[in-house]
Amino acid sequence: MTDFPNLRVVRRIAAAGTALACAWVAAGWRTEESEVDLAERSAFAFAVTGSPMEQFHPGAVRRTRVTIANPYPFAIRVRQVDARVTGSSKSRCKPTPANLTIGKYRGGLPLIVPAGGRRTAGEFEVTMPDTVANACQRATFRLAFSASAERVAR
């Protein structure tokens, strides 16, 4: 079996309203050969998703719960989880801190995710400032999540 010493998310995007994560590892489909290439670079993909961010209004505070899915036949230890706003459902609503802010990660780290399993990792508090642009009210926001992890030694 190929040794997987370090894992880090390559890219994760949670589509607003669906809590679905999509992963892209390098370009194209993941194959045994691409896994070997990734092993040499010590980069592997795993799913990091969050709950949808919908129907915001000025002053609204919501929490997005983060879930991590481990597709590997070994446990991983998640050491860091991040989130950022990448877009909104309204073209005039820019994904800036003036329109939506993401607080610090709230959860216990490191977090062990078992082989082939999933775990709720914690959450982020998301706030729409009182000074938000009118175009952002009742928008659905897209958030991108990322995390870094390593293989758990047996």
UniProtKB/TrEMBL annotation:
Protein's recorded name: Uncharacterized protein
Species assigned in the record: Actinoplanes sichuanensis
